[in-house]
Specification:
The chain is α/β, with parallel strands linked by helices. The chain is built from seven helices and nine strands, in the order E-H-E-E-E-H-E-E-H-E-H-E-H-H-E-H. It has one domain: P-loop containing nucleotide triphosphate hydrolases (Rossmann fold, 3-Layer(aba) Sandwich). Helix 1 crosses helix 7. Bound molecules: guanosine-5'-monophosphate.
């Protein structure tokens, strides 16, 4: 398998970020994670340039006009986009890269790059709401938007190559690590 974009999607609050971070510690060879651009405010603990590039709306629009984004979308009141360099650089160097994005972004990336896609689902929408409330980073308004978007996102699960149900974060991380290993070590897995 050529160097690929490993697309990870799933509703907000399904545990994508935690599972991706855990899976990256489990794989033998490090795999990059693309840092997206967003106009939403940083949550406590999030670091500019690590979790996202946090941009003003004007800076985001400029980036878009300059062709710096592979894809972009609006989600729960904010703009999000994948930076061209975050994908082109690793793929150009023969390395796979993980991209976390929602369904529209996943479709755009699938159309342009070799990819393997994974959908991370919560055990139920009720569990998702409990998790989002527990995170306490959302206002009632953005929580309602994220829950509505979650239902739409769940309806896209069948578009993905793989589905991981996050009812046990350790098991979910192991499953994702196995997929990452299979993708990044593809040619080495030939039996001689
Ligand atoms: P959050 O605000 O919770 O970090 O992300 C909200 C949603 O935006 C999640 O579904 C996340 O996967 C998605 N997202 C994050 N970065 C990107 C991106 O670069 N492009 C697209 N299309 N979606 C993104």
């Amino acid at each position: 398998m050529p160097a690929s974009v490993i697309i990870v999607s799933g509703p907000s609050g399904a545990g994508k970020g935690t599972i991706v971070a855990a899976a990256r510690t489990l794989v033998a060879s490090p795999v990059r994670l693309a840092v997206s651009a967003t106009t939403r405010a940083a949550r406590p603990g999030e670091v500019d340039g690590e979790d996202y590039f946090f941009l003003s709306s004007a800076a985001f629009e400029l980036l878009l006009e300059e062709g710096g984004l592979v894809e972009h979308t609006r989600f729960a009141g904010g703009s999000y986009g994948t930076l061209e360099g975050q994908i082109a650089a690793p793929l150009g160097a023969g390395e796979s890269v993980i991209v976390e994005c929602e369904a529209e972004g996943a479709r755009a990336i699938r159309d342009r790059f070799p990819s393997v896609s994974v959908f991370i689902a919560p055990p139920s929408l009720r569990a998702l709401e409990t998790r989002l409330r527990g995170r306490a980073t959302e206002t009632e308004e953005t929580l309602a938007r994220r829950l509505a978007a979650a239902e739409d996102q769940m309806a896209t699960a069948a578009e993905y190559d793989h589905l991981i149900v996050n009812d046990d974060p350790d098991a979910a991380a192991s499953a994702l690590a196995a997929l990452i290993t299979a993708t990044t070590l593809g040619p080495l897995m030939e039996v001689r």
